[in-house]
Amino acid sequence: MTPLRIAVLGAGLIGKRHIQTIMAAPHAGELVAVADPVADPRAFDLGAAAWFTDATQMLDRVRPEAVILATPNALHAGQGKLACERGIHFLVEKPVTATLDEAADLVRAVDDSGVKTLVGHHRRYLAAIQDAKRRIARGELGELVAASVVWATRKPDPYFDTAWRTQAGGGPLLINAIHEIDMLRHLCGEITAITGMTSNARRGFAVEDSAAASFAFANGCLGTLICTDAGFSPWTIEQGTQENPNFAFTGQSAYRVIGTQGSLEMPVLRHWGAKIPGDIGWDRPIAATDITVPWHDPYIAQLEHFQRMIRRDEPAMVCVRDGANTLAATLAVAQSAAQGRPCAPRIF
Ligand SMILES: NC(=O)c1ccc[n+]([C@@H]2O[C@H](COP(=O)([O-])OP(=O)(O)OC[C@H]3O[C@@H](n4cnc5c(N)ncnc54)[C@H](O)[C@@H]3O)[C@@H](O)[C@H]2O)c1
Asked: How far apart are CA 300 and CA 213, in angstroms?
């Protein structure tokens, strides 16, 4: 398969990771250009790629066939539309856009243009998650009953020296829990109702430092989420996978998915099922089976999938419309907390 002629917009924290991913996976992508008005190109290994300070100029001069939007949230909708107008496929970082109205606008532009889109919920490509997803689809857990996820870590105090991280939208709901809510949708299906509570009691910023939410899924399954950046714990998916070098490895699971026939812990994959097949009940012995899956870098897996989407018409793991549904469910947690009642997320 020919590598994608790909460009990156935004060379900050995550843009750098995308640039490194492309350089590490030349079979999947050829980095043709990067655009960032502020970052210093000398900080990157760019190969033969050109550097621009203006995104539009880059798109028009280089005409990449695909682009990764790794820019601040407020720019995603506008830059996504620039790509649509030029017939350039794009991978946009999460959240897909800053607001639901922008998401609706972008979904329309994508539908009109026919470009292929992917949203950067990279955890869907973790080998443990892919294995769990297959087991759930095969019915190994029976019918899904409930799922619970914890994302709890203590961000270092200097993290909050950047002012926007203390204001609305800069908290763990939109930055971190959005990945967990995307994962709950991925594993358990569409969310129909959400109850949320938020607290800023530990850090005292305008934005939440903690959130709790419960979810009803269309298939009758229920779910819960605890998310905090103020609590020191071993339970985040990052700590269980070594996916992010900034997190100390604990080897603990952060997810539990419970079915009528058995349960799964993730990302340390452990299946709990009847010791004697079919012999199920609270007085019956239950056995744990640890499942080993080979490690692969989820960012490389995401890029390879993006390549197959464009070269082989593989359906997107999470397109802009799907990403908009994850954003709607995440914002509904905050909306429910503000209104003190359950909310139904907007469905795109
Ligand atoms: N998938 C993940 O786990 C993950 C992790 C971190 C960030 N993100 C998302 O990635 C996006 C970027 O976050 P970040 O932490 O890298 O931010 P950042 O502030 O570190 O980087 C953003 C970069 O965009 C550049 N930029 C600003 N305006 C631009 C423009 N018009 N054209 C091109 N570049 C421009 C900035 O100069 C900066 O270098 C956000 O949407 C964020 O939510 C996703």
From this structure: 32
